[in-house]
Specification:
Blueprint: H1 10-15, H2 31-36, H3 54-61, H4 67-85
Length: 86
């Protein structure tokens, strides 16, 4: 497809015919692609409000960006350990 100087709106995309789409720069998905493919499960996180001690928050924030992910990983680890126990 050529002739588009700005992003297409969803409405314009819906009107594009399959035969007008140029797939020449998209690689084929051969067996090596599927052999190396990795299942990515959807992120089922939920936004909540939680109160934690300042020292705990400071600890997880110290390494920089991603402190919420680090906290979540610790909590997930705890949940998995508890499930194994009982």
């Amino acid at each position: 497809m050529t002739g588009y100087d700005k992003p297409l709106t969803p409405e314009r995309i819906a009107r594009v015919k399959d035969e007008d789409i140029d797939f020449c720069d998209i690689p084929e998905l051969d067996e090596s692609f599927w052999r190396e493919a990795e299942l990515v499960k959807p992120d089922l996180t939920e936004q909540i409000t939680i109160r934690v001690k300042r020292s705990v928050l400071d600890h997880f924030r110290a390494p920089g960006k991603g402190y919420q992910t680090r906290i979540n990983r610790v909590l997930e680890s705890y949940v998995r350990a508890r499930r194994r126990e009982g």
